[in-house]
Amino acid sequence: MDALTALPGVGRKTANVVLGNAFGINEGIVVDTHVSRLSQRLGLTTATAPEKIEEELIKLVPREQWCDFSHWLIWHGRRRCFARNPDCAGVRSPAPLSQRLHFRHRSQGETQAGIESSTVFE
Known about the structure:
Strand content: 5-15%
Shape: globular
Mean pLDDT: 81
Structural class: mainly alpha
Largest sheet: 2 strands, antiparallel
């Protein structure tokens, strides 16, 4: 992470994309406009700064799902959950995204979220 973010023009988002997709290393959660919007709509965070959103999501989402979680929210944000006019009625998932999130408790009593890996949102 440090080596990538030391490069000119590379921030946490880009470094997380490279590490997660090119190397399979879950160092953080990619927070773009879709992840930001959907995580707020789902009540996973109230933060607006990408760094703070990432911090809060990292506490909720199991590490092994960090890269996939970003992809799922980005895909859903591009296809259905638009910024100005979300197409909630057009979601063909058996249950709304918020209902397909699975929350578990960590040993410290914190809540952890995950999404069924077989979930497909159209």
